[in-house]
Design goal:
Elements lengths: L17 H14 L12 H8 L3 H13 L3 E4 L3 E4 L9 H21 L4 H19 L1
Antiparallel strand pairs: 1-2
Helix pairs in contact: 1-3, 2-3
Length: about 140
């Protein structure tokens, strides 16, 4: 990820805390395949500059994702996506976190004036188009 374009963006108008937006962005990049196991993430300083946030915020996110088993840091080498990181959460915890994610998605869609069915249809179309672009 050494290019000048960040792997995701943050929205300063979003009421979600910046650290949570950054964590979500990294997790989405992993889940969508933009980041794969073994990929190196930008340094804390570089990502902070790219996103225009405090480096301590990025360091906090990297630390939390490392404790969660999603990332691993090799001192002096960099921070990498950990192989098998998505499976680090026990199944019941993943189910609970997925339900929380679903609730946030539906609440966000409602804030945009979309009903649950319409939001899910948009999501399904997006997944379908992503599948075609990955082929």
């Amino acid at each position: 990820m050494g290019n000048t374009e960040p792997m995701f963006s943050i929205d300063p108008t979003d009421p979600t805390p910046l650290y949570a937006q950054i964590e979500r962005g990294i997790r989405v990049a992993i889940a969508s395949g933009r980041l794969r196991p073994g990929d190196r993430l930008p340094t804390v300083r570089q990502l902070a500059v790219d996103l225009r946030v405090n480096a301590n915020t990025v360091a906090k996110v990297y630390g939390e994702l490392e404790r969660a088993g999603v990332l691993e840091t090799c001192r002096g080498v960099g921070t990498f996506v950990r192989a098998g990181g998505a499976a680090a959460d026990p199944i019941p915890d993943r189910e609970r976190r997925l339900a929380e994610l679903e609730d946030r998605f539906l609440a966000g869609a409602a804030a945009l004036g979309l009903g649950a069915r319409e939001a899910v249809e948009h999501l399904a179309l997006r997944v379908q188009s992503k599948g075609k672009s990955d082929a």
